[in-house]
Amino acid sequence: MSPPIERLYDLSDLSAGGAEIVVEANPDQRTKLAAWLEVESVEKFRSVVTLSKLAMNRYRYDAELKCDLTQSSVVTLKPLRKHIEERFSREIHVAHRARHAPPPDKELTLSAADDDAPEEIESPRYDLAGPLLEELSLALDPYPRAPDEHFSLPEPSDAKPESPFAVLKRLKGEG
Q: Mean pLDDT of residues grouped by 10 in the chain (175 residues)?
């Protein structure tokens, strides 16, 4: 499924002073975003992305995301309104694949410390909405419910279920 929102920006056009870009979803994009997130509706999706140039091919991406949406309770299926606010940062590195590609006979291995490594991209054209969508999907409660809602298991029955062989015997008229 294609992303519901895209906002391409050419990082090679970024000046030394940086840039501040507002990414806001229109009604059609909010409808697509709700389907993509599998929620009832998205009432607001707005973010301010601040880009800074760190070096010739390194950039800093800082974002403040605000989203209002409606999810269904997993207990009662009633609509629940949620307000999500997230702040996050990423470092982006524009790499040329020809220089940085591992030799074909050597296997690439990653270490646990690579989580903080910059995000490597091949082209300076970068979708500013991609990280916003990723962080929003991670911020969603997978099992939403109201604070006063509690799920309780049905009471166990003391009666033992009838054996399937006893049912067959009764159907044959033997019992």
A: 92 94 97 96 98 94 98 92 97 73 51 68 94 96 85 72 82 73
> Residue 87 pairs with which residues in a beta bridge?
64
> Tell me, what amino acid is at 119?
E
The CB density around residue 125, as the number of other CB atoms within 10 Å, is 13
Nearest Cα to Cα of residue 116 among 139, 93, 97: 93
Q: Point out which residues pair with 91 in neighbouring strands.
A: 60
| DSSP code, position 36 | H
In three-state secondary structure terms, 92 is strand
CA-based nearest residue to 121, from 113, 131, 111, 112: 131
Cα–Cα distance for residue pair 34/36, rounded to 1 Å: 5
